[in-house]
């Protein structure tokens, strides 16, 4: 947990700052034909993940990738997280999460889903308003005398 100075004053947040992942490449279920079987450790370096305002839980449905540095420097280790929900502090009861803080990826996806709907409704409203104005204008000008625009119709007047 740490505090940041913002325009709204002092704001407390919590974040994941270190991960240590231990894996065994001798396990044949996940590591087939491993070159150097054995236990290895991968850890994070200056990590700042799952940043959330204090007092809220973290929720993210989207897939996130965290790169780790392996003890065996020939290997690249990436931790893939999806459908994550974490309540690190202030647990009121077992299996009860506080108000969730959605990750930026989920918020962006939600906006991408709702934005076309909003734009479609606005466009439909503009079309309906335009048709109403045309209808009203047509009704008001229907009883007025129309002056001929073609000059050939003026010949019989002379």
UniProtKB/TrEMBL annotation:
Q: Where are the transmembrane segments?
A: 117-136
A Pfam family annotated for this chain is: Lamp2-like_luminal
Example GO BP: establishment of protein localization to organelle
Q: How does it sit in the membrane?
A: Single-pass type I membrane protein
**Annotated ranges, domain Lysosome-associated membrane glycoprotein 2-like luminal:** 13-91
The main location is other
Q: Which UniProt keywords apply?
A: Cell membrane, Cell projection, Cytoplasmic vesicle, Endosome, Glycoprotein, Membrane, Signal, Synapse, Transmembrane, Transmembrane helix
Q: Which GO terms describe its cellular component?
A: dendrite; early endosome membrane; endoplasmic reticulum-Golgi intermediate compartment membrane; growth cone membrane; late endosome membrane; lysosomal membrane; recycling endosome; synaptic vesicle membrane
Subcellular location(s): the record lists: Cell projection, Dendrite; Cell projection, Growth cone membrane; Cytoplasmic vesicle, Secretory vesicle, Synaptic vesicle membrane; Early endosome membrane
Q: Which family does it belong to?
A: Belongs to the LAMP family.
Tell me the function of this protein: Plays a role in short-term synaptic plasticity in a subset of GABAergic neurons in the brain.
Q: Under what name is this protein listed? A: Lysosome-associated membrane glycoprotein 5
Q: What organism, scientifically named, is this protein from?
A: Burhinus bistriatus
């Amino acid at each position: 947990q740490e505090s940041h100075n913002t325009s709204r004053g002092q704001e407390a947040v919590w974040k994941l700052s270190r991960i240590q992942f231990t894996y065994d490449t001798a396990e044949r279920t996940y590591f087939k034909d491993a070159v150097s079987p054995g236990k290895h450790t991968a850890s994070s370096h200056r990590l700042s993940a799952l940043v959330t305002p204090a007092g809220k839980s973290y929720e993210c449905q989207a897939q996130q990738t965290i790169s780790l540095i392996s003890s065996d420097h020939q290997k690249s280790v990436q931790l893939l997280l999806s459908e994550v929900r974490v309540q690190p502090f202030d647990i009121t009861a077992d299996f009860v999460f506080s108000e969730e803080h959605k990750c930026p990826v989920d918020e962006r996806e939600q906006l991408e889903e709702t934005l076309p709907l909003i734009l479609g409704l606005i466009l439909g409203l503009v079309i309906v308003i335009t048709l109403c104005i045309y209808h009203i204008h047509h009704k008001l000008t229907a009883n007025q005398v129309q002056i001929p625009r073609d000059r050939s119709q003026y010949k019989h007047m002379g």
